[in-house]
Design goal:
single chain; two-stranded antiparallel ribbon; 8 helices; 29% helix; disordered C terminus
Length: 270
């Protein structure tokens, strides 16, 4: 049986020679051009965000989605690329984004209040071309609402950017693009750090704590691109969804905290 299969394979390869390269290789996993996400841990984990493909980032509130979004926009606009943000719930703060390094003159901000408007705007932007990155932020919409988006919508978005230099960044609370996404990242929040010493030095009220920072972790749920490099972290998930010990990353949520030290002194931890 093995000899027959080998013979059949040789015949198929011979018949397809010159038309299809390596027909028996995993063609769905290919080398593509990627761009930095602006967060070292995520770039080491994924190899970057794929051009001409959909990158889906999902997670619960306060899991670092906005930090990844702002870091990616800052990275692209710093290279003078035109970017577009379709804001599904009109929640984007341009002042915080500018403080985090986003060049607003290179950013088109589309403010929406209905998911139908957000999807339509994204469709028009992708069809028009010319953007280095288009981000569709649906993370502030209820998961039940986003869940009802037809699957052919994500397929249409993917087809619109194939073989183009555009990065499509999709942010949600749940994963909905499924197999349409070239890269899927799941985010989760880690422990909040409180600066007790700084609070005491400022003679704040009893039980007050200054916010020292917030960290989050990212896991690769699916990837159809060849990984440039993998950095070992505590845990993660492989492209097939099976548990793996090398596919997780921990990063600092800095983009959300670009405020003078002590501005959070009213927050208390008891």
């Amino acid at each position: 049986m093995a000899a027959q299969l080998a013979t059949l394979r040789a015949q198929v390869e011979s018949a397809l020679a010159g038309r299809i390269l390596a027909p028996f290789t995993y063609r769905d996993r290919r080398e593509v051009e990627t761009v930095p996400a602006g967060i070292a841990a995520i770039d080491s984990l994924t190899g970057g965000l794929p051009r001409g493909g959909v990158t889906e980032i999902f997670g619960p509130p306060c899991s670092g989605r906005t930090s990844v979004l702002i870091s990616a926009l800052a990275s692209r606009t710093a290279h003078a690329e035109s970017c577009a943000l379709v804001d599904g719930r009109d929640s984007f703060d341009p002042h915080s984004a500018a403080m985090a390094g986003v060049r607003l003159k290179n950013l088109l901000w589309v403010r929406c209040r209905k998911i139908e408007h957000a999807l339509r705007a994204t469709d028009l932007l992708l069809q028009s071309g010319g953007f280095g990155m288009v981000a569709l932020d649906l993370s502030d919409l209820t998961p039940r609402l986003v869940r009802h988006v037809p699957l052919n919508t994500w397929f249409r978005f993917r087809r619109a950017i194939e073989n183009t230099p555009t990065v499509l960044l999709l942010l949600e609370q749940e994963s909905n693009a499924k197999t349409c996404a070239s890269l899927v990242l799941r985010l989760g929040a880690d422990a909040v750090r409180w600066n007790i010493a700084a609070a005491k030095s400022r003679n704040l009220v009893m039980h007050s704590r200054l916010l020292g920072g917030v960290s989050a972790h990212a896991d690769v749920v699916r990837s159809r691109i060849k990984m440039a490099s993998v950095v070992p972290f505590a845990r993660g998930f492989s492209a097939t969804g099976q548990e793996s010990k090398e596919r997780g990353a921990v990063f600092e949520m800095k983009a959300c905290w670009n405020y003078p030290e002590g501005v959070f002194h009213g927050l208390q931890k008891r």
